[in-house]
Design goal:
mainly alpha
Length: about 240
């Protein structure tokens, strides 16, 4: 497949270089065929990617010859093949470096631009508005803080209650299961019922424990972040407006 790709590429290049004199065209084709051979058959795709499409390479080669030279010089046995892959790669690198330098310069100019200064009247107006709004902001801040403390207390109580229930179910399940096992030789039916009840309590306790752990790891941080975001919201709005 690599040999066929090379042949197809060179055949397309030969067709596109038809405006060149025969010797010039053969010199160019021999150069690029040797370039493929030096790279090896396994590197054919890489070489094609490096050279670019055959049409683009042909345009580079043809651009090295002026129209007058093509009309006046039918044969040139010492012609040099233009558009070497090394030169094309260097040209691309120079263009990329120039674009990167221009982008960096533009970013530096944006960073160096001084922030707009506020006039003394606008600063004084902001201070007066803040003083006038202070009697309203203090009760609001106290209310928000109280709500936050209340919600935190509710979450704590619920978590503590859930932990107590889980612990009670686990201990009860172990006790009932142990009692059932101890009665297994005496009262078989009651012992089996007690063992089943103990296992049920243990399973329910383990399930609730997993749910509590999930709530503690996933839900509680999300709720806490939401509450903190609500608390920061008035201050963030003031900063944006300022």
């Amino acid at each position: 497949m690599s040999t066929e790709e090379k042949k197809a590429y060179l055949a397309e290049l030969r067709r596109l270089l038809a405006p060149l004199p025969a010797d010039e065209r053969e010199t160019a084709l021999i150069y690029y065929e040797e370039y493929f051979d030096d790279a090896g058959a396994e590197e054919t795709e890489r070489v094609i990617g490096e050279l670019g499409p055959a049409r683009a390479l042909a345009e580079q080669i043809l651009s090295g010859y002026s129209r007058d030279y093509l009309d006046a010089q039918p044969v040139s046995s010492h012609a040099q093949v233009p558009a070497r892959p090394e030169d094309a790669a260097k040209e691309r690198r120079r263009e990329e470096e120039a674009r990167a330098e221009a982008a960096q310069k533009h970013a530096g100019e944006e960073k160096a631009a001084p922030p707009p200064r506020r006039s003394g009247a606008s600063v004084l107006l902001i201070v007066i508005l803040a003083i006038l709004a202070l009697p309203l902001l203090l009760p609001l801040a106290v209310l928000v803080f109280s709500l936050f403390v209340t919600l935190a207390a509710i979450v704590f109580v619920l978590g503590l209650s859930a932990g107590c229930v889980v612990l009670a179910m686990l201990i009860g399940g172990v006790v009932v299961l142990a009692g059932g096992l101890s009665l297994l030789a005496v009262h078989t039916l009651e012992a089996l019922l007690a063992c089943g009840l103990g296992l049920t309590l243990l399973g329910a306790g383990i399930l609730m424990l997993l749910i509590c752990v999930y709530m503690l790891v996933k839900v509680a941080p999300a709720v806490l972040r939401f509450l903190l975001r609500i608390l920061r919201w008035p201050f963030e709005r003031r900063v944006v407006k300022a």
